[in-house]
Amino acid sequence: MRAAFAAAHSGQASPLSYTRVAIALHWIVAVVVIAQFAWGWWMLEIPKQPPGSRAAAFNLHKSVGLVILALMVLRLGWQMRHRAPTLGGLPAWQQVLARCTHVTLYVALIAMPVAGYLGSVFSGYPVEVVRRYIARLGMERSGAQGTDEWDS
C-alpha cells in the first residue's frame, strides 16, 4: 500500500491510479470543454448586428477550441509515455467498452477543434489566438472577411 501511495504522489502511474499530471489534464480539459459547450450555446443568441460583439464571441470560441486541441495533444503525449492504470476486477466486456469509450472521447476532442479550425479556414474567417491570426495556406491577407487587417 505504501508503494502505491508513493507512486501516486510522485507523478508516476501505478496500477491503482493515474499520475497527477494526467488527473490535472483530465479536469482542465473537462472544465474547458463544459465551458466551451455553454459558451457555444450562448453565443448563438448574440444578434448579428452590430457584428463586433458576435465576432468577438466567435473568435474567443475558436481560440478556446485550439487551446482544447493543444491540451488534448499534450494529454495524448502524456498518456503515451505514462501507462494508464489497469482495469482489473472488471469483466472483460466492461474493460473493452471502457477503452472504446476512452478512445472515442479522445478522437472527438481532437477532431472537433480540427473541424472547427478547418471550417474557419475554408469559410474565409480568421482564427484569432492571443490577438494574432494563425497563418492559413493559400489565403492572402486581403482575403480575410470580417476584418480590416491581419494583425490588429
| Main sheet characteristics | 2 strands, antiparallel
Strand and helix order: HHHHEE
- Order of strands in the sheet with most strands: 1-2
Shape: elongated
Bin the strand percentage.
under 5%
* SSE class: mainly alpha
Q: Give the N-terminus to C-terminus distance in angstroms.
A: 57 Å
Tally of DSSP β-strands: 2
Mean pLDDT: 80
Total tally of structural domains: 1
CA radius of gyration: 20 Å
Low-pLDDT stretches: 1-8, 136-152
Q: What portion of residues is helical?
A: 55-70%
Number of helices: 4
Task: Provide an overview of this structure.
The model is unreliable at 1-8 and 136-152 (pLDDT under 50). The protein is mainly alpha-helical and 152 residues long. Strands 1-2 form a two-stranded antiparallel ribbon. The termini are far apart. Helices cover 62% and strands 3% of the residues. A hairpin with a 2-residue loop joins strand 1 (128-129) and strand 2. The relative contact order is 0.11. It has one domain.
Brief synopsis:
It contains 4 helices and 2 strands.
Write the layout of secondary structure elements.
Layout: H1 2-9, H2 20-43, H3 51-81, H4 92-123, E1 128-129, E2 132-133
Antiparallel strand pairs: 1-2
Features of the shown structure:
single chain; 152 residues; mainly alpha; two-stranded antiparallel ribbon; 4 helices; 2 strands; disordered C terminus
